């Protein structure tokens, strides 16, 4: 199975610019690009911050842009989103019994778990008792290897201003997945607006640039120095799943550098 992962689309009311870039246009360009270049992708995943201010018109734009995607689209909220407005514009989106936008899907041989870490009014991620119970049940009810999708990382990534707004309840989260860590074969997250990969407690993780604006790479600034922004080029990822492999390619879809043969 092949799917597309993109994140942090940050659409705004009226379709105008945000930080000197146009999120509506950037997302349209991403969709147009993968529809042409990855027509065999079977799903699209967007790991939160669908909109910047949670405005109704921004979700309306998202729905319109995604209407041309001829494959299932799986959304989760980020800290910039409004869960209630997402439900207004995507009424068929799946929620758990407590109203959180979280659900599971079979992705080939894997169980894809989509986790909601949004908490209204705050930038950091929240993992409450209800979400802990839900996540543990999903892990316990399956024997498949797991792909875990969430907006906020549950471990530090070294950019201190962003680490200050990662998932707040790290210990309860680690308790919830205790005993299942070896089945979590890839964690996908958003929030950071940078390409980062590695592993945490042997769980491989991956994230990438947003489709509009990025967080500048600064591993030295203090947490209270503010989040450094930068208009680096956007990305989406192409994820290929097989029993043996999780293969992730990153596409800089606006890159126009020349192509040439490397043969002498
Ligand atoms: Fe974001």
TrEMBL record:
Domain Calcineurin-like phosphoesterase: 1-195
Record Pfam families: Metallophos (PF00149)
Claim: Hydrolase is one of the keywords in the record: yes
Keywords: Hydrolase, Iron, Metal-binding
Listed InterPro entries: Calcineurin-like_PHP, CNP_phosphodiesterase-III, GpdQ/CpdA-like, Metallo-depent_PP-like
SUPFAM superfamilies, A to Z: Metallo-dependent phosphatases
Family named by the database record: Belongs to the cyclic nucleotide phosphodiesterase class-III family.
Protein name: Phosphodiesterase
UniProt organism field: Advenella mandrilli
